[in-house]
Amino acid sequence: MKSSQKVIDYLNFLLGGELGARDQYFIHAQMYAEWSFGKLYDRIYHEMQDETGHAQLLIQRILMLGGKPNMQVSEIHIGSDVPSMLKSDLELEYRVQEHLKEGIALCETERDYVTRDILVRQLEDTEQDHAHWLEKQLRLIDLMGLQNYLQSVTAEVNQQVNTH
Ligand SMILES: [Fe+2]
Ligand SMILES: [Fe+2]
C-alpha cells in the first residue's frame, strides 16, 4: 500500500521518539534496580516494553507503506535521582503526546485513517497510562515527602538476564 511521503517521514520522526523513550526507560529501570526501588523498576521496565511495542507498530506500518524505517534514536535525558528521573520521563511523555497529536492531524489531512488509528492508540497509552502514572508519582512525593515515598517503593529486584 502507498501512503504519502509526508506520513512516512512523520512516522520515522515518531519512531525516533519511541526508540528514545525505550532507551530512557531501559537505563532508568536499571538505576532503580541498583538502588533497590523494586516497585519503580517493575513499572519502568514494563514501560520500556510498551515503548518497544509502540516502536514495533511504527516500523511495521512504515514497511507496509513502502518506507524505510529510520532507527535513529532521539535525544534522551537521564535523571540523577528519583524525582529528576520521574520528571524527565514525564517531560518525555508530554513531548511524545504533542508529536502524536501533530501526526494524527497530518494523517487526517492526508486521509490515511489506518495510520491515524495506530497513532490514536499510542496517544491513549501515552496520556492515560504512562504520563498519568508519572503525574501520580510526583503528586505522591509532594503529599508524603520524598523519604516516605521512597520507602513505599522499596523492594529488592531479582533480574533474570537471558543472554542465550
Ligand atoms: Fe510510546
Ligand atoms: Fe510512553
Structure write-up:
With 164 residues, this protein is mainly α. It has a single domain, classed as Ferritin, CATH 1.20.1260.10. It has helices at residues 5-34, 38-64, 82-109, 113-144, 146-152. The longest helix has 32 residues, at 113-144. The radius of gyration is 17 Å and the shape is elongated. The structure holds fe (ii) ion (2 copies). Residues 18, 21, 51, 54, 96, 122, 126 line the site of one fe (ii) ion.
What keywords describe this structure?
164 residues, mainly alpha, Ferritin, binds fe (ii) ion, ferric iron binding
Q: Give the biggest sheet.
A: none
Q: Could you give the count of β-strands? A: 0
User: How many domains make up the coordinates?
Assistant: 1
Which shape, going by the Cα principal axes?
elongated
CA-based gyration radius: 17 Å
Average per-residue pLDDT, rounded, comes to: 96
Name the CATH architecture.
Up-down Bundle
Low-confidence stretches: none
How far from one another are the termini?
A: 37 Å
Which cofactor or ligand species appear? Answer: fe (ii) ion
CATH fold group? Ferritin
Strand content: under 5%
List the helices and strands and how they pair.
Blueprint: H1 5-34, H2 38-64, H3 82-109, H4 113-144, H5 146-152
Helix pairs in contact: 1-2, 1-3, 2-4, 3-4, 4-5
The structure holds fe (ii) ion (2 copies).
Give me a quick take on this structure.
The protein is 76% helix and 0% strand. The protein has 164 residues and is mainly alpha-helical. The longest helix has 32 residues, at 113-144.
